[in-house]
User: Fold this.
Amino acid sequence: MDWASVVAAAIAGAVGVGGTIAGARIASKSAIRDLQLSISAENDRANRAEKRRIYAGCIAAFSDMSTAVLEFVNLRLNYDAATATVESIEAHIETNVKLAKIRDVMNTRISEADLVAPEEIRHLLNRLATAYMNFSIEAHQRKSATYVNDWLGEEAERRVDLIQAMRADLGETS
Assistant:
């Protein structure tokens, strides 16, 4: 028996087993890193989708609020308590109730967005919501079509600013 051959074969076997173990460890670490990256990418995608849903809810609530506020202001501008009929009083009450419900939905959507949006978007959301509330009061006091038209232009600009900030936060360019 040639001991040199036996020792050489044993060393070669040990080196082969060691190489296999080292290769398996490297592959395992690489697989773990790939899995972590995949999970992170999926979490980012899910978070972006949730933000998109919340932002879309805000935009829809603002659209409803815009319609309701204009209806409310139109009714208030044309309302005369001295000549009011039962129907006009009921319409006035119904419009107030509708506006309050839509305002509640808008405030709920803003509250959801406050949890996920950066400071700039939270500021724009609250600025637009405040503008709606102030408009419903001021338009009645001023009773001016010019004021209403000017406000509508400003409201459109505020909404564009908000949508652009939301798109930027979502990583969208247009």
User: Anything to note?
Assistant: The chain is about 90% helix and 0% strand.
